[in-house]
Design goal:
Two copies of one chain form a homodimer. With about 325 residues, chain A is an alpha/beta fold. Chain A has three domains: about 5-45, 434 Repressor (Amino-terminal Domain), CATH 1.10.260; about 60-155 and about 285-315, 3-Layer(aba) Sandwich (Rossmann fold); about 155-285 and about 315-325, 3-Layer(aba) Sandwich (Rossmann fold). In chain A, about 45% of the residues lie in helices and about 15% in strands. In chain A, the strands form two sheets. In chain A, strands 2-1-3-4-5-11 form a six-stranded parallel sheet, sandwiched between helices. A six-stranded mixed sheet of chain A has the order 7-6-8-9-10-12, with helices on both faces. In chain A, helix 1 crosses helix 2, helix 1 (about 5-10) packs across helix 3 (about 30-45) and helix 5 (about 75-85) crosses helix 13 (about 285-300). The longest helix of chain A has 17 residues, at about 185-200. Chain A is elongated. The interface between A and B is large, with 47 and 48 residues. Chain A binds a DNA duplex (16 and 16 nucleotides) through helix 2 and helix 4.
DNA sequence: ATGAAAGCGCTAACAA
DNA sequence: TTGTTAGCGCTTTCAT
């Protein structure tokens, strides 16, 4: 590894001068600068970022904490964060917490010891106090929690309302909502949106809980139809869950959308791949990731934040799991 | 941030002693050790890994270079690598290269400057010489390239043969293979397996190229049926591609598996979510990731490698896109 | 058994 | 304009 000393020797100047030309600060004569630049090139010198980190107490790294990269909601988010980070010269470290507080704590410790410059939290098992004590820039992504930390979420409540209204407008009269885990804010907001609409409209409904995976939602759906065979509309709290619903209804011999209409939430690529393709509430996932990344980098670079809480619009993506002709029922 | 000096002061010993108890080497008296341990606990001291890195020229970080985390083949791989890394105390940095050599080079440079201990390459845009010059432990994952670097791949050639044979045994007589890009070794091997079987058996066939994404394969499939309406079997080089095939056939009014049988490759969770569920050649993706990670860590820790090239078995997963009754044709 | 001090590669304050 | 040097937090050699 060639160091700054090698460059200094080669260019016949001091290390300070080399440092000055690299960081473009301080006075350096034209000749000295050229000599240094040439030496850097000749030796193919790359400054050692560890040494830099040690001095500056920063690392040009940001941590992204997510529950599980295998869950198809997260790769796109991660990709967005990385793309933005790259353009600002940051490296992102993705950590899978499995919604386990010990893992989360472990990763946070490890990252702090590496002087990470900031954290994007798409998971939250710790208390806000814990997070606050970290004393580094933070952004909450997808799972909001409090007011004081910059947050990026989509309009889960409104999106859920629209989803429910869509099912009703297309003729569903007994609607089930498969909600996500109780602790998860996102799942709660969607549930509340659903609840408001069905209650307002006086629509028969039932709510059951499932995990955000296909297996759980499939099983829950089976039990649901066991008890309530006349359900004619389902709002699943995520697209992956909706896929589970489709599996279950297929097995039960119910037709989608003729017998049961289905709408998901998220708008991940999977939805389009399904047959029939999934009607869903699309979140701007990539955009959420980019905003979160920019918000974090702004904090790191001590720029003022104009907006603390981004609530992004969702939009309905019409697929084939809802009927095209309103009110028709086969 | 509390440093080793604070601990030393608190325990009334020198920093050398503190270092000794942390690293469990050198002689330390019982009393000194206890005092230090207590101080560490009291101050909630966490050693600074950047300083450590600077001295040791290692970072306990490994880099994982993949084309794109949004491609559903990679999250599980990444997850496996991370799980293993975690148990050995390593942090993994995932980098999306988009199969772009500049990006790959950029990331490799950035990682080297951070003293990453090793790299897992699930992408390869650079020459073997470039990789070799890096002079750090390497593992090639999924995309093998040469002999001298430890490699983990699955039996693409054999898997492709089995896939093709399955289609034939279940009655397909005019088979299309949608292969992946020419430069990709994996795609080549699968193509060669296909070719061997159809030629040996004298089965009518056609091969077209597509990218490893749904859009490309959908379009290619449409063109395929335009020219060869009598195709009755398709072997897609990946599951995502197979999803594209399903989309296209649906649109063309062809039934799967009655009119056309379909088999994919990979065994990603998506396959099961599809309706009908996908018959595919399942690779042990998670296992590949864990082996690659262990192989890398072994090298980093200077342990001998007993096997340089892992070629893992694939297995056929029967879904609903192939017929259950051989030779039956509706 | 323990401490003082040099050094990992870099930056910045201070001197010249 | 440039060089010398202390120091970022840690490890390890060399004295003691």
């Amino acid at each position: 590894m060639t160091t700054i000393r090698d460059v200094a020797k080669c260019a016949e100047v001091s290390v300070a001068t080399v440092s000055r030309v690299m960081n473009k600060n301080g006075y350096v004569s034209k000749e000295a600068e050229e000599a240094v630049l040439k030496a850097i090139k000749d030796l193919n010198y790359k400054p050692n970022s560890v040494a830099r980190s040690l001095y500056h107490k920063t690392s040009k790294m940001i941590g992204l904490l997510i529950p599980d990269i295998s869950n198809p909601f997260f790769p796109e988010l991660a990709r967005a964060v990385e793309d933005v980070a790259l353009t600002y010269g940051y490296t992102v470290v993705i950590c899978n917490t499995d919604d386990d507080s010990d893992k989360e704590r472990h990763y946070i410790d490890a990252l702090k010891q590496k002087y990470v410059d900031g954290l994007i939290l798409a998971t939250n098992q710790l208390t806000m106090e814990d997070y606050h004590d970290l004393n580094i820039p933070l952004v909450m992504l997808d799972r909001s929690n409090n007011q004081s930390t910059p947050t990026v979420v989509s309009k889960n409540f409104e999106g859920a309302k629209e989803a429910t209204e869509l099912l009703i407008s297309k003729g569903s009269r007994f609607i089930a909502h498969i909600r996500g885990p109780y602790q998860v804010k996102t799942a709660d907001d969607r549930y509340l949106g659903f609840k408001e609409v069905v209650e307002d409209r006086g629509i028969a409904h039932v709510v059951v809980e499932a995990e955000f995976n296909i297996k759980s939602s499939k099983q829950v759906t089976q039990e649901l139809f066991d008890r309530y065979p006349t359900i004619d509309g389902i709002f699943a709290s995520s697209d992956v869950m909706a896929a589970g619903v489709m599996k279950a209804t297929k097995q039960l011999g119910k037709r989608i959308p003729e017998d049961v209409q289905l709408i998901g939430f998220d708008g991940i690529p999977l939805g389009e791949m399904l047959i029939p393709s999934l009607t869903t509430v699309t979140q701007p996932i990539y955009k959420m990731g980019t905003i979160a990344a920019r918000l974090l980098i702004k904090q790191i670079e001590k720029q003022p934040l104009d907006i603390m809480k981004y609530e992004l619009e969702t939009k309905i993506t019409l697929g084939e799991t809802t009927r095209s002709d309103s009110f028709a029922k086969t």
